[in-house]
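Structure in, sequence out. Go:
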């Protein structure tokens, strides 16, 4: 049975709204400092502690988590052929964040807790080409 005009229009509208939400989240995350991003990661992976942890401790936890997971994240993100081709284009930073977030979201088991957009912004700030250099050198197109 064919879908009617209203169903197709609704699906298109919903997809556009989801993309607008993703762009807004990317732009909000890009406005944060690295410490704020690491704090978000630290808070997400720490769970509830018996005693409150300081901001400095949570930032440190976020940095440690990112450094420990970096290789696995790189394999997931940089293994995407479509992202590699997208990275060759001149695209706005927030669109690159959205693309990386999408890949991480599809394989969220690679993260285990922190918001994908937060991790994506850190990757973009490090430089996608630098972040992916080892993976891309080992897997030429």
């Amino acid at each position: 049975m064919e879908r009617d005009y209203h169903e197709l229009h609704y699906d298109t509208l919903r997809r556009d709204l989801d993309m607008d939400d993703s762009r807004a989240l990317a732009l909000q995350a890009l406005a944060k400092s690295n410490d704020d991003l690491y704090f978000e990661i630290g808070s997400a992976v720490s769970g509830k502690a018996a005693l409150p942890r300081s901001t400095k401790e949570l930032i440190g936890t976020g940095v440690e988590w990112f450094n420990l997971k970096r290789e696995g994240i790189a394999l997931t993100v940089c293994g995407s052929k479509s992202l590699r081709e997208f990275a060759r284009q001149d695209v706005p930073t927030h669109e690159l964040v959205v693309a990386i977030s999408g890949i991480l979201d599809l394989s969220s088991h690679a993260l285990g807790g922190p918001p994908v957009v937060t991790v994506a912004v850190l990757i973009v700030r490090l430089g996608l080409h630098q972040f992916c250099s080892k993976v891309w050198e080992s897997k030429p197109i």
